[in-house]
């Protein structure tokens, strides 16, 4: 799949997202790009989307003068998206958290306002095993509460992404290359290693529900909901919402309905409320 910009919107910002199975506007499911899409729509800044096939990500990043940005634990480069290029400032930013910080600093009063309003985000999650995720030396952008929250939310969902791998809408044109890349990233022998038996899947769903319990409690503290601050959304809500978008696309429908209903339906309400910022342009 060639890199294209086939958005229905034009603007000064180009947003680079991972293109999956056509139509890409319906199959986009990568959580970090979703964090950026939600933030761009929250800020209501003009932008267009350039869809990039996974095998082309490294080439596209290098064409914009961007290095890998991260490395795997073995020291090899990890090229990923999202990335934005803002013609208005000449800036290219290539990490979802950094992009949110950039949007807040550059367009502080745009759209729905402050992405990072002050709040305490008391949620931690310790993975039961080494996630083998790429190393990163990024700073907190001046928002340490949000940075820690982002790290912990990523950990709880990443621990359970095996539930979603088989449902990823991979592009048939690049499916073998994409599968090989996922195998390399995960450090497994083959794509078949991602397959779960029905018993293992049931146990992992139980683990997922339990792991989300403390996060749900945080959302339920403000009874005005559906957001952490009640009726006011923040980047913390977008972080969780981005992972829920992946679950919505990649989980079997019956399992997604379970997730929606867990913990008094808190995540279903959050997912639905974030439709306001979920337009795929």
Automatic annotation (TrEMBL):
One Pfam family named in its UniProt record: GST_N_2
Species lineage: Eukaryota, Fungi, Dikarya, Ascomycota, Pezizomycotina
Region forming the signal peptide: none
Gene3D superfamilies: 1.20.1050.10, Glutaredoxin
Name the UniProt record assigns to this protein: GST N-terminal domain-containing protein
Domain GST N-terminal: 20-111
Organism in which the protein naturally occurs: Trichoderma harzianum CBS 226.95
